Amino acid sequence: MNIKPIKTRKDYRAALKEVESLMSAIPGTDEGDRLDVLVTLVETYERIHFPMDLPDAVDAIEFRMEQQGLSVKDLEPVIGRRNRVYEILSRKRPLTLRMIEGLHTKFGIPAESLLKQSVRKPRRETA
Known about the structure:
The chain contains seven helices and no strands. The chain is an all-alpha fold.
């Protein structure tokens, strides 16, 4: 059977079924190569039809801060002075490419999330 583009849900389901049957294929064999090509096609179809909603830059930074127990002071070497960090976290100032590179390199925050434009969110009022 020839490999063809995945254009419909029916094609997608058939490709998933075939991928499942090839999961034990040995890399470098004809079956292994077929599995590699099918997985690439499935991933492309999923990226287009089932996009993941990545967090915006500030959400990603806040998540990493919580995850690693980081403080505003820990971000200063990458972002700049304390007031600059607060401007970024409050979405009053966008990240620069230098900041994105530093946050990605030093803290392992995915560049895709850091490049996503922040939408200014209203602050929640506490009762």
